[in-house]
Amino acid sequence: MTEPCDLPARTARALIGRRQLSPRELLESCLARIEAVNPAVNAFVALDVEGARAAAQAAEAAVMRGEALGALHGLPIGVKDLEETAGLRTTFGSPIFANHVPKQDYLTVARLRAAGAIILGKTNTPEFGLGANTRNRVYGATGNPFNPALSAAGSSGGSAAALACHMVPLCTGSDMGGSLRNPASFCGIIGMRPGAGIIAAPHRAHGWSHLSSYGPMGREVADVALMLSVMAGEDGRDPISRPLSAPVEPLPPIDLASLRLAFTEDFGQAPSEAAIRAALRARAAALAPMFARAVAAHPDCTGGDAAFQVLRAVGVISAHDAKVRERPADCGPNVIANVEEARGYTLGDVAAAQAAQQRLYLSFQQFFAEHDVLIAPTVGISPRPWRELFPAEVDGRPMQSYIHWLAMVYYVTLSGHPALSLPMGLDANGMPFGLQIIGPRGGDALVLRVAAAIEAAFVGDAEFGRPLPDLGALRQSAPLREAEGFLGFA
Fold first, then answer.
1. Measured on CA atoms in the order 451, 457, 459, 460, is the torsion positive or negative?
2. Domain architecture of the chain: domains with CATH
3. In angstroms, rounded to a whole number, what is the distance separating the alpha carbons of residues 250 and 73?
4. CB neighbours of 290 closer than 8 A, spacing ≥ 6?
5. What's the chain's average pLDDT?
6. Which runs of consecutive H residues, i.e. helices, occur in 240-332?
């Protein structure tokens, strides 16, 4: 990988600022990579080539005039198809919005554009983000760059696949039940869910709930930190928005030997395959000598499964009940099943879920009084075929619900703590393994600094370094759209 599109975001931005890389050259390299490998994985689903070329030309002119440049000046990015983009189709993966062209950018997109980023196109997502397998009836499925027959996870699967193939240096994601951490793990890139309120979301219907969060996705930790520095910030329309507790750009180094590490295979109860637990143990053993102390420990997550199931359903029924009632033929199976489930809960169920969430939150606070950082697998399973809408079992254990297999990430969601998925080699099936790094409340900078130190310790390492897909094989692969069941849910 030696093309401009293969450059890390920070490197490309520095070269642009020094007039050693043209924004137009970088954009054309990204477009060439998309043309070559996107058919194999279906990561980008809508492109604004004309608009991006005009923006790149303007960005280059600004460089040549010696103007002050934004933090992301001249960098092409992908935007998840849940975030509205002015003048560029935003479908939310739903036939209901198949022809929806917004008139203005969503706040996160506006902040990125204001920092000089070039909005190249939209990345695929499951319908309304309701699913950890990226499939919909508008654009079809997204395949994993390491094996297009397998899932890229979701709901930020398009962004993760695009980054793994170096189509662009940065992409946006969003996360509730691990929607950017899971795809980052499956595709071998980095995705960060910031702490509650760090990235303002003024259009969130339930403004006091922190379950849903936007976040940055990239190929290197420093790139993710750079992107977070642009996306983060308060907004008075979001009642829980708050500033970062510490700067993340530039990202200061950290001495891991000063920190107390805890590690867990499964939080004591999350579904996980034996191979994933073994992979975590191997990585914990490699990391332990770098820290002041390393012990097996985890917060008490008792009641977390039911709490997340119910509280997630509150948001689902608020957003989608009318769609299922009025346009059921245009709603997919996940949306319908989620709404029907939500209709069955009572006010007592919601009250119990909120109480359980508070208990879990306090458990996390107590835990981080004794430990500085916690690591766990990001996902409890290795990637499975994208035709499987969701896992019904994990190592022979039946799942309580279609999202139960995501417990490893949604416990952290309930707590509101920052977490990042860092690629650390391959699992026993030859697929990327994501290490979830979790920090204390307000510890966004700490999580990034720890991740950067681990990344640096294993850069280029054959066993634990970031894996790369075979782009040559992807270029030769049949287009994913030709696969049986590609469009829809059959």
1. negative
2. 4-482 (3.90.1300.10)
3. 16
4. 256, 257, 453, 454, 457
5. 97
6. 274-287, 304-326
- How many other C-beta atoms are found inside a 10 Å radius of the C-beta of residue 421? 34
Residue 435: strand pairing partners: 377, 422
As a whole number of angstroms, the distance between CA 33 and CA 46 comes to: 15
Say what the pLDDT of residue 477 is.
98
Tell me, what's the pLDDT at 262? 99
- Is 148 within 8 Å of 41 (Cβ atoms)? yes
Confirm if 188 and 164 have CB atoms less than 8 A apart. Answer: yes
β-strand pairing of 147-151 with 143-144: antiparallel
pLDDT, tens digit, 9 for 90 and up, residues 80-95? 999 999 999 999 999 9
* pLDDT at position 396: 94
Residues 6+ apart with CB under 8 A from 267: 298, 299, 301, 376, 407, 408, 411
pTM over 0.85: yes
- pLDDT bin (cut points 50, 70, 90) of residue 489 is confident
Examine the pLDDT at 169 and tell me if it is beyond 90. yes
Tell whether the model's pLDDT for residue 1 goes beyond 60: no
Strands 170-175 and 213-218 come out as antiparallel
Residue 203 pLDDT exceeds 90 = no
- Contact criterion met (CB below 8 Å) for 389 and 335: no
How many Å apart are CA 416 and CA 399, to the nearest integer? Answer: 24
Residues marked active site are found at: 80, 155, 179
- Give the model's pLDDT for residue 298: 98
How confident is the model over 20-47, as pLDDT tens digits? 999 999 999 999 999 999 999 999 999 9
The candidate with the shortest Cα–Cα distance to 198, out of 152, 160, 154, 229, is 229
CA-to-CA dists, residue 149 to 23, 161, 287, 423, angstroms = 34, 13, 33, 20
Handedness of CA 10, 14, 20, 22 (dihedral sign): positive
Which helix (H) or strand (E) covers residue 174, if one does?
strand 170-175
Handedness of CA 174, 178, 181, 186 (dihedral sign): negative
What φ, ψ does residue 106 adopt, rounded to 5°? -65, 160
Is 2 a residue whose pLDDT tops 90?
A: no
Residues in the chain: 490
Dist. CA 455–CA 264, nearest whole Å? 20
323-331, long-range: CB within 8 Å, 24+ apart, which pairs? Answer: 323/94, 323/96, 327/96, 330/94, 330/95, 330/96, 331/94, 331/96, 331/127
Of 447, 393, 405, 397, the C-alpha closest to 422 is 447
Residue 90 · residue 100 · CB < 8 Å: yes
DSSP 266: S
**Run of H or E residues at 474:** helix 471-476
Beta carbons within 8 Å of 15's beta carbon, 6+ residues apart = 7, 21
